[in-house]
Amino acid sequence: MRFATSVVCKRFWFPAMFSLIFTAPLSASPIFGSLSNFDVVNDTGEVCHGFEIELEGLNPSDIFGTFGNPYIRYGDPTIIPTPTGTLIRYASGFGPSGWATGTPVPSGPFPQGGHQAFYPAYGGDPNYETLGGEHFGIAFNGNPTNTIYRWLLGDASGNLNPTGTNVSIPAPTWNVAPPVVPGAAPAVQAVIPALPIEQPGALFGEAIWVKVFVTESPDPMELNQLLPGNPRVPDSSDPAEVEVEWQLLQAGKGGMEELDSGLNELGNNSESITRRYEFYAYTGPYDPEGEALIEDPADDPTAVGEFLGAQNAALNLEAFAIPEAHSWILVSAAMVGMGLFARRRSSGS
User: Fold this and answer.
1) Which structural domain, as residue segments, surrounds residue 272?
2) ∠ Cα 219 20 3 (to 5°)
3) What is the pLDDT of residues 35-55, one digit of tens each?
């Protein structure tokens, strides 16, 4: 298992970048890396034998860390290029005796206390084998244009196929604006969308509830730090970390189609920001067209259903100087070269 952070480049990046841009005209520009670490419940009603994360708009070279072996039953994922981006596939082995492992259907309520759906030897839930969910994680540079999660069902011939619907856990998009005043902190915005409308001709998508907790840190976040017990991971234990108590999300419903944090300036000493999104099923009434009618759980507590999963999402921000356009070709070559070197080093570790 290999962990990395968005500042994985520091070991290789800055010496080469410095030697190339030292004499070039400079302008301040922020770069960032995203970390996504999430628990997901197997709500398919069947034993699953794999899981897919589809990142549209990103190349395999943009992925620099995953959560896998030896922490979860599926080990390390396979990273596959697609016509629109990258597919990260976790899969069970298959042999003469059938599938080697699988994620069962939950036998009871799924724990909501943290990201714990991995082996207890590494700090996970003692009942991981029968819990009915998994923990997955990826670290990447940039922003995917779309993120899709899918459980995979295995057939008797060893083929894996997506279930009929995608997983009800949206992923946030991060936006970073450079500071207006030199030396000040950049501003960061996190937008989490409602689930897309999947039924042809439908006016509304699936409604879900989301709770949001947020914290900042003067240190970069690492993928393996987005786990239970880390004080840098926000949760309900500290009221100051509660950003949104409850928010309904539903595509097609005015004002509820996304949750936008707004563009907020970070603290001057902050190098990372972490948001924990908890998702719950909407079990309240709908109108005949499919619009959710309850917008506040205080109006009807029974409208909040089972825990669907949680996403710990972090953004690592490293502001540094980049050259103006006339020397960009030279720097691009350095970036590609260092990226390939880092990738080969990661593959060999």
Assistant:
1) 8-177+185-348
2) 35
3) 888 888 998 999 999 999 999
**Does the residue 2 lie in any domain?**
no
Nearest-angstrom CA–CA distance, 100 and 96: 10
d(CA 219, CA 206): 37
Both tokens assigned to 5? 């952070």
Helix (H, G, I), strand (E, B), or coil: what is residue 208?
Answer: strand
Q: What is the identity of the amino acid at 273?
A: I
For 332, list phi and psi in degrees, rounded to 5: -60, -40
121: left (phi over 0), alpha (psi -120 to 50) or beta: alpha
Question: How many domains in the chain?
Answer: 1
Report d(CA 146, CA 137) in Å as an integer: 16
Helices (runs of H) and strands (runs of E) counted in the chain: 3, 18
Q: How confident is the model at residue 318 (pLDDT cuts 50, 70, 90)?
A: low
Alpha-helix runs per DSSP H in 168-264: none
Cα–Cα distance measured from residue 311 to residue 275, given in angstroms and rounded to the nearest whole number = 8
**Single-letter residue type at 329:** I
Q: Is residue 3 part of a domain?
A: no
Task: Give the Cα separation of 39 and 264 in Å (integer).
Answer: 27
Q: Is residue 127 part of a domain?
A: yes
- Rounded CA gap, 76 and 273, in Å? 26
- What confidence tens digit (pLDDT) does each residue in 157-202 have? 999 999 977 888 898 888 888 877 777 778 899 999 999 998 889 9
Cα 139 from chain centre: 8
Strands (E), 112-262: 133-141, 146-154, 160-162, 173-177, 187-193, 208-217, 242-249, 258-260
Could you tell me which residues are beta bridge partners of residue 317? 32
Is the residue at 340 inside a domain? yes
